[in-house]
Amino acid sequence: MDYVDRIFIQSSYCGYIKHRLLYSFCLMFYMCFPFVEVQLYLFWFSSHYSCQVLTLHLPSQGAELRVKVNKLTSTKTQLPYSYYSLQYCPPEHIVDSAENLGEVLRGDRIENSPYVFQMREPLQCKILCRMTLNTKTAKEFKEKIDDDYRVNMILDNLPLVVPIGRSDQENAVVYQHGFHVGLKGQYAGSEDLKHFIHNHLTFTVKYHKDSQSDLARIVGFEVKPFSVEHQFDGEWKNENMRLTTCDPHARRAVTSSESPQVIEDKKDVIFTYDVAFEESDVKWASRWDTYLLMADDQIHWFSIVNSLMIVLFLSGMVAMIMLRTLYRDISKYNQLETQEEAQEETGWKLVHGDVFRPPTNSDLLCVYVGTGVQFFGMILVTMIFAALGFLSPSNRGGLMMAMLFLWVFMGLFSGYASARLYKMFKGTEWKKITLKTAFMFPAIIFSIFFVLNALIWGEKSSGAVPFGTMFALVFLWFGISVPLVFTGSYIGFNKPAIEDSVKTNKIPRQIPEQAWYMNLVFAILIGGVLPFGVVFIELFFILASIWLHQFYYIFGFLFAVFIILIVTCAEITIVFCYFHLCNEDYHWWWRSYLTSGSSALYLFLYAAFYFFTKLDITKPVSGVLYFGYMLIASYAFFVLTGNNWLLCLLLVYQAHLLNSED
User: Residues 36-62: what's their mean pLDDT?
Assistant: First the structure.
């Protein structure tokens, strides 16, 4: 029984149903009042004022603990598979656990297992089953071992980890997700490479005992896998046989893999496990800290300092422009004595009659601005909640699900921003721009995702999104996001149009020949270097978390880097925009968007560098999946960083407004 997950609401019309809101409330109540001993009773009044009773069971000594199994994962293939895709010992009935949308998109497939413990009652050499391999199953095990697949399990909502000591630090331990399916090696005196299966697991369940009662809470779940060719006397009868290689009565335990179990056709494999319980000083509320503790936090502080130095440098340049250059230019303009002198304008004032001329493909710019606002809102709210600790890692898939729902509901602001800018460009067909805003970016992402999902489906991986989940995503898109985009566009378009601070000339001004360093491509590529320099250190840990399946939950650092990134993008856009306008180039709309947005190109190039230097992916399908998902991430990063163009628009608007008033 998963004790912290069995909270039900009794209703006369809908039976027993899970209620996640009350689930969270019960857990918070229990963490705040740990003196509650056996059962926690909370009362909830329904809309019919009927009193409902919620019961939260706690594991006492001897209570049954059931281990759940999750997907098989590999950093080599990036293709997850369900646990029972291999010939492991199944329970009497395989039952799939209810999963949220985020878990399904992550490829989680949580099922029950025959591993059963009794709380604080050690167990030694428990026989699970005896399996006979055939040619097909032996080949499948060998393929998974070659691809470094790991087995993932869950107990009391805690993931199974393998503790590994660090050689560079004394008494320091790092945790790895799951254990390897097996290993490869050679017998002494033989050159043939053999595959061996990990068929004996030594579990260690850590618990924190309450000082005032006999209750204990699980705070750790670790394992040490071994490969053992079990032996027994006589003929095999059932799982109650006594093994000669592992016998609790003779106090003979498995401590090494000296006689490993080879994987071959028609070979019998006996699966066994031990369970040890270890008291821990770690409290239940802090049990995730040991998994999420970062031993290299100094690198993250270095990342913050590095980013701050870049921001200070850019802030100095912007301050120089705002407080010195603009003020000096306007002051000199005001001090001119004659009208003839006043006509001899220089620099950015020369293009005041063309600076607000609508750019080419203005509709597309409106779409990207609206999408950028939507993406910025989603990231900002997600970061705030994650930094405050609301998106707990114990809620698998919670982060992805939160981002997905926030993206959908931020469609209201997306439609509003695109419609406001479209009306500023004197546009009249607001429904057309709304449709483009609602469909263009999601359609591109969904098309790439659909192709990648088809490749995963072709590999028969559990990571393939089922048809029902795909339908749910389409419903969120068409049923919620699109109407919200239309609502925002309707509100934005009915607002008074933003009037240009200066009148636009009817005849466009001729742009003088520009220096080579003011070339469009060169300026855009240079502009993306500094925003990427802000995030590239933290990006390394994010990629390691995604593709190397490492723990990552330092959202405080990430939120700080995110804020610094936004400030950097805004400042670099303002600086480059000012330089272009001073050179009498009034085509600043798309330049400003692409200046900081070009950092997405460096992100994709860094992803390619990471692929060839840090990952060991060999399968073509896995390589396509990697670059496909990183292309989606880079495209989203382009939309996010390029949208700082809005601050540049505000600066240009205010500068020319001040100039026209003077």
Answer: 40
